[in-house]
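Subject: for your reference before the review

Hello V.,

The reviewers asked for a structural picture of the protein, and I figured it would be easier to keep everything in one thread rather than splitting it across files. Below is the amino acid sequence we used in the manuscript, unchanged from the supplementary table.
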Amino acid sequence: MHRPSFNTQFEMTLDKLQKYKIPIFGDFDDLIFSYPHANHRPSVINGFESIEESRMRVKKHLQAIDCIDGVTVSNTFLKNIFVNSVKEHKQCIQLSNSWHYSWKDKIDYEKKQQSLKQNLSSREKTIYLTYFSGTKTHDSDLAMIEDQLINLTDKEKNLKFLVIGKVSLSKKLKEKSLQIKKVPFSKYHQLVSQSHLNIAPLESTFFNNAKSSIKIIEAGFFGIQTVCSPIPEYISTPETSRLIAYTWNDWVKQLKQGIQNRNNSSLLKRLKRDIKEKYHPLETTKKFISKLESRL
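And here is what came back from the structure prediction:
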């Protein structure tokens, strides 16, 4: 179960699984199960939720965790907090994120997209800089580099900022952007593969330090680099897959470097290989089954 929360649907699912004695694990790739960090949630920081509402959501996650066999978490940071502060006696298995297994069948589509990118003349080609924000809770993350993005789109006339998600855009940035607020996962890979360069800005907060590397993995599967903040899980990804921006000035430098790298076919081939090998979903599944068998 992904991020289980105690509600009617959870109880119905729980009854069915327990009836057949199926081990139940909740998957968490975010710090949403910890009371001490309820006020660090982006939804609270961005003003979409009160601290009381955030704590209530934490309570429902913890109630759900009490009912299941254990949890899986996406990194060491989350595991340490869970084991030491949240549920000391509940099973906790660390598993890295993976690219989606269904994407292995998208290789032909990927090749067509790459061919299309290469065949367009430089005059005609639109360079897509993508940001997959998901929810509005990333407003402050994007605002952190807004000036750099506006300056870059002013200088790079072929550059188009493609935003997927409900994040708020300023008037100036909106004029230079194309925003798609929601897309079904079945079509998500089409948008990712159209990108030439991806970004993943995150403010330096305790909550963000628990984030997984899924955005870099998803882009890297299609040979697309990500310019990102120095979050631990981002730094742990293959060097071919990301360009770390430690300062505001770094964002300008790394964005320009990423735009140049899009024509480095050798680098991008290594990037795809690195991501597909390190984050293969079948390998992650094997690790999970192995750890599960040793504990049950």
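For the response letter, the relevant points are probably these. Confidence is low (pLDDT under 50) at residues 119-123. Residues 8-98+280-295 form one domain.

Happy to draft the paragraph if you're swamped.

O.
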